[in-house]
What we know:
disordered C terminus; 9-stranded mixed beta sheet; alpha/beta; homodimer; 14% strand
Amino acid sequence: MKKIAFVGLGLIGGSLAMALKGFEDCQRLGVVRRQATADYALSHDVVDAVTLDPAEALPQADVTVLCMDPRQIVDYMKRNRDLFQPGSLVVDVCGIKTAIMKGAEALPETVDFIGCHPMAGTEFSGIEHAFPTMFRDAHFIMTPRATSTPEHIALVRRMAKHLGCKDIITTTPEKHDSIIAYTSQLMHVVAAAVCDDVDLFQCRGFEGGSFRDVTRVAALDVDMWTELFTMNAPALSEVLRRMEDNLHAYRVAVENRDVERIHAKLTYSSERKRRMNLPGPGQFSLDEMEISRDSLEQ
Amino acid sequence: MKKIAFVGLGLIGGSLAMALKGFEDCQRLGVVRRQATADYALSHDVVDAVTLDPAEALPQADVTVLCMDPRQIVDYMKRNRDLFQPGSLVVDVCGIKTAIMKGAEALPETVDFIGCHPMAGTEFSGIEHAFPTMFRDAHFIMTPRATSTPEHIALVRRMAKHLGCKDIITTTPEKHDSIIAYTSQLMHVVAAAVCDDVDLFQCRGFEGGSFRDVTRVAALDVDMWTELFTMNAPALSEVLRRMEDNLHAYRVAVENRDVERIHAKLTYSSERKRRMNLPGPGQFSLDEMEISRDSLEQ
């Protein structure tokens, strides 16, 4: 029987552990810092066993899933490097990859590492908000090392499939961080910036679905997102600059009441959005993007 | 038996007509431009009767609901002013109110007008996307004339309740347009601007829930939103300027990798969002805002 250790049972770690119940008859071990979390995890069948002591779990784990904030993950691998079972696989599930892959160089050579990013979550934190269907139909991104074994890569793919993910994308850490600055980090900055508006509390009773949707993720985990933004600052700054430019172009058209320009711009933007909504494979070029995209159904 | 005429059976008009089935035993009349819409409306029980000729419906309607784009509404009231039944009520349901209330001055003195804005919708257009539960738990905003009769105001309130709206807010057209520039129009510009990014089509496979939520409304009705933006240009320009400033402040903090500043800003924004999420009445001052807020449950 394989053993999977989940280090950190918060929103993501808890949801992963719940979702991986029944995966290839594995035993799920939880490693947490607080007794209250341990008690909750056991009483809610989040894991099969739980400990506060990494030395009790890591040496027997075939797979260790690190589910903490980015800097904690880097520190944890360094501090516990000699506890991981030789030949075992360590993965993380956080929102940046370059700094994590670099941090994983602290692991012994006998321990494999694959960066993982299941693209799901909610605006809540903590094990009490975890739920096993979180990853259904989500994209699963992985950044293996050049030396990662085919067996470990195949294992991660089976885990992603068990989670219910829609597809798996294999890419480089740098490409991941560059694109995620746009698709994820920018959305969080936009949501936060909308909530900074001086009129926020005057608008109660005037919100529709679009306001709720755009601002939803503003209720974020401040510590984690501060790390994510800081550790990906160059890519995020660049994306923010482009967003400012694109917003500004709309403002100029509106300020000038330039009906033709507003119409042309909305035609352009809405057609791009509709093209994005089309089903089918990604529109990027595989060669150009250094990305291989594989359907789980193949 | 009262008769309600719905002029325009698109996404909103169709949904309203479906939702008002069974309202106080009213007969629902549809007034449309295309035979195909008329056929669809009858065969899908959107209305009880339908005509292409306003002169067949308006003179017998006790309430006329104008469900077209803003400029069409203004033109329609002017062109058909003598068709509305004396003593009847005309309402609209579009996203701006100042220009509409002004346009309604073209109606005869014997015809009452109340501006209405049920805060719901989807990114789709057309009767085939209409559904009767669209307005459930939505805010319903109304801008009556100073001369609107208590009976007509009470009738609109009962209609809003039948639609399933969460609450009704009575305000002035100017206040409506100023707040809606923020809660609705800005969200649409933000969604469109995100889709203008050069990386849009490179990001397939990297989108999470936040990306889908923020960009959802970018697939908008170009003609209608061009009118809404143009007719509310001063308020929207001002809101866009503030959004640019708030985004820019985030960019500066990120560019400088100013961890403390990023943390402080995210703390501020996320606390504001959580405060907005709290249940309970609006946090604005009634006197200051010239707004009265009434629970339908009272």
